[in-house]
Amino acid sequence: MQLITSRLHLRPVINSDADVLFIIYGDPTTNTFNPAGPYPDTDYARDVLARWLKHWEDYSFGNWAISLRDNPERIIGFGGLSIRSYADASINNLGYRFSAESWGKGLATEFAKHAVSYGFSELKLPEISAVVRANHPASQKVLANAALRYVRDIHDVKNAPASMLFTLTHAEWDKKSG
Questions:
Q1: Among residues 110, 98, 90, 96, which one has the least CA distance to residue 5?
Q2: pLDDT per residue as tens digits for the range 127-139
Q3: Counting beta carbons within 10 angstroms of the beta carbon of residue 123, is it exposed (0 to 12), middle (13 to 18) or buried (19 or more)?
Q4: How many domains is the chain partitioned into structurally?
Q5: pLDDT tens-digit readout, 103-133
Q6: Is 68 helix (H, G, I), strand (E, B) or coil?
Q7: Which of 44, 62, 73, 146 is deepest in the core (most CB within 10 A)?
Q8: Kind and range of the H or E element at 135?
Q9: Which domain holds residue 61?
Q10: CATH number at residue 105
């Protein structure tokens, strides 16, 4: 199942995405706000990808490989919706990471809005949440532009400052989009 936005092409991740996953998630620049730091090697990326593929198998949704619509073979990021546990909560998590060369073009906002719409209209999720670091204003702006709102801090990374939990319920989305 592939999805198209005005500028983006999304497809479910596949096994052969491991090298590109490592390139993007192993880049220190894309991990500036990630206290866990970049992926250490391709094997780590393969393990993450295996979990993402299992999520697709178990729930029929998950992470997509993201490319530009006019160049669908070249992956510029990964993102999607997944069931995650953070601190004391299990959430329908909106997550994304784009290559640094893709920053500042509104692509993350376009992706996030589309993922939220898909999660509510197609998957019928009751709510969608995202976790962002307090020192990452660009990502906070993406979430706000996708209509998620800050609800509380959560302690999701040991020995690190709290993260911010943003959430949007299906009912709130219906009011805003209707």
A1: 110
A2: 999 999 999 999 9
A3: middle
A4: 1
A5: 999 999 999 999 999 999 999 999 999 999 9
A6: strand
A7: 146
A8: none
A9: 3-177
A10: 3.40.630.30
